[in-house]
Amino acid sequence: MQFGGQTALYDAAVDGIELAAQAPFPRRTMILLSDGAEYGGASVNPREAGPDLSPVRGVPVYTIGLGFGTDRSYLEALAESSSALLRVAVAR
Question: What is the reported pLDDT for 63?
Fold first, then answer.
């Protein structure tokens, strides 16, 4: 991945799920730390790809929302689709 001012969040979720699914371990889990936003339309995969893929591949995705104005909707969809949890970290 390259830094460039855009966030391909949907692609990152799909890639992470696929990598975790291929891991040679009996229990596979992914933890996603993000503000929940897709910036710049950088993803090739649609928004639904991660939430649809996670239960099929058997990889629960625990999501942690970071930053001000966290977009919870995608993080919730991703976590709930695999019976995992969402937590939001709020700066004090």
Answer: 96
Alpha carbon distance 33, 88 (integer Å) = 9
What's the pLDDT tens digit per position in 15-51?
A: 999 999 999 998 999 999 999 999 888 899 999 999 9
Domains of the chain plus CATH, in order, are: 9-88 (3.40.50.410)
Place of tokens 């009996």: 26
Mark 63-77 as b/e (b = at least 16 C-beta within 10 Å). bbbbeeebeeebbbb
User: Who has greater pLDDT, 3 or 22?
Assistant: 22
Helix or strand (DSSP H, E) at 78: helix 72-81
